Each structure stands twice: as structure tokens, then as C-alpha cells.
Amino acid sequence: MSDAAQPTAAEVRAAAEAVKTALDRHLAAIERRSGEDDPAVSEAFNQLAAAAEAYDELLYDRYDEVTPFEIPGAEDTLPPYAGPGEPHAISVLIRRDYTVAEPQRLLAQAQRVEAADYDDGGDEDGAAASVPGALGTLFGEFEPDEIASRHKEFGLEEGDSTLWVTAAEEPPEAGEWLAAPFEHIDPQAVVCRFDVSAVFDDDASDDEDEDELDFVGDDEEELEPLDTDK
Length: 230
What we know:
Helix content: 25-40%
Distance between the termini: 54 Å
Strand content: 5-15%
Radius of gyration: 25 Å
Shape: extended
Structural class: alpha+beta
Oligomer: single chain
Number of strands: 3
């Protein structure tokens, strides 16, 4: 960052004072809370997180120093549910991350799918000839849940995943949100969420589970036949 764009010492000091004020408000809200899901506590928490993040950024920009705190931001904490009591519609938002661990296995599986779709055995220069094309072929052929359960067969390694269920009074109009499917989600309409991440796993149990799994053999000839009928 250039000297002209750096925050002043006074701005850093003001941000530090804002953190102190937010700490006092957060503690006061906790001392006065009316229940486990008191919205005043959630609001004070979010204000404290925002103040701490602003101070941390200014401190780094000005002095190249950081705080020892790691406070999750407001976007990482869902507020209490405030959606309809009897929702007539729900939306399920899913994100699953994968690593392409074995590109050749991925390509081979996609090419087998592509070959089954053509009488001439497929085209070497078809969509499945590249990793992006292979991904398009496999995700076009198989449901996401099936890919999740058979990811090792496709040369993929699981990463983090999350599932959110949101509630609404009425279903949206057909095609209304397709252009931007993950925008404008109201956190207070989230009924429940389920997160899966390696940070939650116990290393010992992971090793035991991996020893019990045997999806495919090491040789390509040992791959199980793919059901290409949807």
C-alpha cells in the first residue's frame, strides 16, 4: 500500500477505541440477555466482530502488525430464525468442494461415458478430452449425490461441504433466480445448516475409515462398470 493510502495513526487509535466500546456493549448484552438466542447478543457479537476486523486491517496497513484474535465475521454466524412459522416452500443450497486428485482417472471415466453415448466408440477430441470437459461430461451424466458417493471412482478428493435449508412463504416464480441462484439469501430464513469439513474430523478415525474403503482398484481395467442410464 502506498504512503498516501495508509491510514493515519489517529484512525488506528479510533479503531482501537471502537473495539473497546464494542467489547463493553457485547458484555452488557450478555449480562442482560433474555434467553439463549437473544437477538441483542447476536447484534452485539456482529458489531464486535466488525470492529475487530476493521482494527486489524488498519493496524496491519499502518504498522504491519496483526492482532492475536480470530473472531468469526457476521457472515459466519447465523442469526436466530425469523422466517415463516409454517413455510410453504423451502430452498436447499448445497456447496461441495473437490480436488481433482487423479486427472487421468477422471478423463478415463468421462471418456467411457462419452463412448457409451456414441455408436462409433466416441471421439478422442470430444468434450471428455480435457479436464473441464470431463467434469462437464460426468456432472451432466450423474446426479451430484451419486458423484459425492462415488467421488474416488472419478479421481476426485472431497473437501469441505455445506447444506443450507431456507424457508419461504411462497415458492419463487419459475426461472426467477436462475441468473443468480446464490444471491439474496436471508440468513434469518435459514431453518438449518449442516457443515462437513476436515477441521471437524479426528485424524485417527479418518485413518480407520480410509482403511475400510475400497471403491476401485489401482489399475484402470479394474474400474467398476458405470451405469450411464439416468
